[in-house]
Amino acid sequence: MAAQAVAARARWPRLALAELWVRPRRLQHEGQPERSDQPIQMENPYKDPPKRCVLCGINVDYKNVQLLSQFVSPYTGSIYGRHITGLCNKKQKEITKAIKRAHVFGFMPVMFKNPQFLTDPKLCNIKYPE
């Protein structure tokens, strides 16, 4: 071994033995102190806050016609879909079931919206004008 080291010095007289071996690139980051200019982990500032359902926490009943009429088209009487109402899946199913039950029991008209509820403020985002 010593003969090889002497032979290496003879070939490269300017290099010392310690300079012959260089830490591989994949290991260069190990053993270095933390730098303050490195990126830190943080939440995405551009991420939208989670959307909440309007009816989460509210009991949906088929006898509450004023609430149910908010999710019915005033001209056709059809029930608005989830993409229009913005409700979660569970509440949309409850609303649909309650509206159908109110139709059967005669609390709500089937083909149009009750005229006394036409002036109520809108709960859901309707993307097209009435």
In terms of topology, how is this protein built?
Blueprint: H1 2-11, H2 17-20, H3 65-68, H4 82-85, H5 89-105
Describe this protein with a few key phrases.
single chain; 130 residues; mainly alpha; 0% strand
Describe this structure in words.
By secondary structure, the chain is mainly α. 30% of the residues lie in helices and 0% in strands. It contains 5 helices and no strands. The longest helix has 17 residues, at 89-105. It is rod-shaped.
The multimeric state of the shown protein is: single chain
What are the secondary-structure elements, in order, as H or E?
A: HHHHH
Strand content: under 5%
Residues in helices, as a percent range: 25-40%
What is the CA–CA distance across the termini? 92 Å
Average pLDDT for all residues: 79
Low-confidence regions: none
Could you provide a short overview of the structure?
The protein is mainly α. It has 5 helices and no strands.
